[in-house]
Amino acid sequence: MHSPTSTPAIPRTALLTGVGRRRGIGAAIARGLAADGFDLALNYFEPYDRRVLGEATDVELLADELREQGRRVELIPGDLEDPEFPPTLVASAYRALGPLGALVTCHCESVDSSILDTTVESFDRHYAVNVRATWLLLKAFAEQVEPGTDTPGGAVIALTSDHTVHNLPYGATKGALDRLVLAGTHELAERAVRTNVLNPGPIDTGWMTEEIRTAGAADTPGGELGGPDTVADLVRFLVSEQGSWIRGQLLYSNGGFATPAL
To answer: For the whole model, what pTM was predicted?
Structure first.
């Protein structure tokens, strides 16, 4: 076991999922990690961006931006609902960049629906994308490392949410994701893999109306909402040597946002 003060630096390579749009949280994390010297593999799935967000992906422009900073960037599109894709994604990132030091899961399936109108098809897709794919990604990431070897291992961070009411399958699967990822810190300790879950609170990436934005700011002590960069700042710390002793935690980085009473 490494002591907290002697934990070796992880490889400066990272796989990020759900990075389809330059104004999204995943893009902000990619920029932050690139600024810290990480080479990146970016996963995205344009049909989701078009179906749910009504936007086309512009991740190619993000990749060009990061390459201009001297970073290697590999774009790997694919649908995480397919159980064959997560291990393929990790393998592709490994081939392109070498051993991966960080995995940050920003992907999700998120369709507004409630107890009475959620379909079985939608419920199952939420579980496949938000839970099963995250498990398979975590598994493949950990399998890079031989247990018991003197290895720096890696850091895994998953984004989560409290939102459930009228967003039932999304919220239910985020709860399952939390338990799954946090278990990794204990189950994967011999591989030197550390895991955390990050709840950023409400972040406007283009989906908020003015009414939602105003209400969210009013429920935050500082009177303003965080942005994608506030999420990226914590991710950058958690994957750093200075943040390596924070493990197995569900962290709130939401400016003190108070979830309204149900």
So the answer is: 0.90
